[in-house]
Write a structure and sequence with these properties.
Blueprint (H helix, E strand, L loop, with lengths): L2 E4 L2 E4 H4 L7 E2 H14 L5 H9 L5 E3 L6 E3 L2 H4 L5 E2 L1 H14 L5 H7 L5 H9 L5 H11 L7 E9 L2 E8 L7 H17 L3 E12 L10 E10 L3 H10 L3 H97 L5 H23 L2 H6 L1 H16 L2 E6 L9 H22 L3 E8 L3 E8 L15 H7 L6 E6 L5 E8 L9
Parallel strand pairs: 11-12
Antiparallel strand pairs: 1-2, 3-6, 4-5, 7-8, 8-10, 9-10, 12-13, 13-15, 14-15
Helix pairs in contact: 3-5, 6-9, 7-11, 11-12, 14-15
Length: 508
């Protein structure tokens, strides 16, 4: 294998090729690790590194002896080291998988406010003002990250706008941009500003696979209140006194700690609020299910009660009025034999027969015995014949079930009432004598189709008088649905679909 000499040590070309590009300063990882070790002690940082190393080669050159070595926590905490942008991006993503906090990057960026070197630097430039500090930060930012450029796009009283343009093909996550926003907050506070607010906006997401042009561009707008020149001047002069400067540094550090506690408190409140909301949503969902179950139970009970009352009324009519009418017909027939010359008896007999026939028809409509004696299929066949006779229709009943399904009595009653309502709608609205009732099923569903060749309508323009909302209510506890297919002048097809496992239950 071909070998080269590097600083007196022998390294293979293959291993040397695994060294990470020097793009991002370890100053960034230093503050990241410090934050995790203080606020998220549950995170195993060595495990984090192992996860990143599984995705890419993580080698650095030892700054002491020049040898290549695997990346460790020690490297992340030494400011002299540099890492590739890809490594830092993957590290951020691994952290977010463990800490799903949408503002984590911003919080970590704000922690540089507690950096004593940064505090000392900021104390020295307090006379410059925030906008000068922003210009200085923008011009020197490349010292810590070589994959992007900073520029100041706007300056006004209490306002600074900074743009970050990344190099071609650099993949950027929102975590990193939030980090920058937190850093800008810290710089503004250290320069003496108060009421600092930082907002950010993605101008271009960057890489082509993310829908961008190739270069990620983000804008940051910093709004703040800046002390008057006299206050800044006094501050600058007083800080030349060593003991005052030391006290100020300590005060700034305490202020930074206080700000961090506020952020931590806000995060705790946010997490607890989310937890409470999640519990509330579960309770509401459970209560909704309970209500739906109660409504379904009441609906079933109403159907059962209604049908029981219908049967009772039909039986009473049959046992009383119908029997009296039948007996009256026989008595009129007997009178006619004895008094054939009384023509009025013929009219009376005809009227009694008509009343008897109509009453029997009404009794069947209220509660058809065939439904209870022979089931849904026979009842619908009788319904089609009755409608054709009474309304001069050509309603065709087609049964493709062939006795293959076992339908519970309660379900049969609900389906019969619903299909009958659809047939009545044909009589009232279709303006056509031709129609069809079709029963069929698939592996999972029972399907009843009621069709006509009438005037049709726009399904979106259905009026309440059509009664479909009440029909859908009837299907609730059968988990069924109604599907409408209609076009003006081309007729209508309405499908009633019910899962097969909802068709069997105890009878009414």
């Amino acid at each position: 294998m071909k070998r080269f000499i590097w600083g007196g040590d022998t390294m293979t070309v293959g291993l040397r090729s695994k060294v990470m590009a020097k793009e991002v300063s370890a100053l960034n990882t230093y503050w990241l690790i410090q934050y995790l070790q203080k606020y998220h002690t549950e995170i195993d940082i060595e495990e984090l590194l192992g996860e990143v190393e599984a995705e890419m080669d993580c080698y650095v050159e030892n700054l002491e002896n020049g040898k290549l070595e695997k990346l460790t926590l020690r490297h992340l905490l030494q400011a002299r080291y540099w890492f590739s942008h890809r490594f830092v991006y993957n590290l951020h993503e691994s952290i977010l998988r463990r800490i799903p906090d949408p503002s984590l990057g911003y919080k970590i960026g704000r922690t540089i406010y507690k950096s004593k070197p940064l505090i000392r630097t900021a104390l020295g430039v307090s006379l410059l003002g925030v906008h000068r500090v922003a210009q200085k930060v923008s011009s020197e930012a490349a010292k810590y990250n070589r994959t992007k450029e900073y520029s100041v796009r706007g300056l006004a009283k209490g306002y600074v706008e900074i743009r970050i343009v990344h190099h071609q093909g650099i993949k950027v996550g929102e975590f990193t941009m939030q980090w920058n926003a937190g850093c800008f907050f810290s710089y503004a506070r250290l320069a003496g500003a108060t009421d600092v607010k930082v907002t950010m906006e993605c101008i271009d997401p960057g890489p082509l696979e993310q829908g961008g042009s190739g270069q990620a561009i983000w804008d940051f707008k910093i709004v703040y209140l800046e002390p008057r020149l006299a206050i800044r001047l006094f501050r600058a002069v007083m800080l030349t006194i060593p003991w005052i400067r030391k006290l100020t540094e300590e005060a700034e550090a305490i202020e930074a700690e206080y700000q961090e506690q506020i952020l931590t408190r806000d995060e705790i409140i946010r997490q607890r609020t989310q937890h409470i909301m999640a519990i509330q949503e579960k309770l509401i969902a459970q209560e909704r299910r309970n209500i739906e179950q109660k409504v379904a139970k009441i609906s079933r009970e109403l159907v059962t009660t209604e049908e029981r009352e219908r049967r009772a009324i039909a039986e009473d009519l049959h046992d009383s009025v119908t029997q009296l009418l039948a007996l009256s017909v026989k008595e009129v027939q007997a009178l006619k034999k004895h008094y054939p010359q009384i023509r009025e008896l013929d009219g009376l007999k005809s009227n009694l027969n008509t009343a008897l026939r109509d009453l029997r028809g009404l009794t069947f409509q209220i509660s058809p015995p065939v439904l209870y004696d022979f089931g849904l299929e026979a009842a619908l066949e009788w319904l089609a014949e009755d409608v054709n006779q009474r309304h001069n229709m050509r309603l065709v009943f087609t049964n493709l079930l062939k006795g293959e399904l076992s339908i519970g009595q309660q379900q049969s009653v609900i389906l019969y009432r619903l299909i009958r309502e659809l047939v009545i709608n044909i009589i009232k609205h279709a303006q056509s004598p031709d129609g069809q009732i079709l029963l069929r099923h698939t592996r999972a569903q029972f399907i009843a189709e009621v069709a006509d060749e009438g005037v049709g309508f726009e399904p979106s323009c259905i009026k309440d008088g059509f009664g479909l909302s009440s029909l859908e209510d009837r299907l609730l506890h059968l988990n069924g649905k109604i599907h409408i297919m209609s076009t003006p002048t081309e007729g209508t097809v309405i499908q009633v679909k019910v899962p097969l496992d909802s068709l069997c239950s105890d009878g009414v």
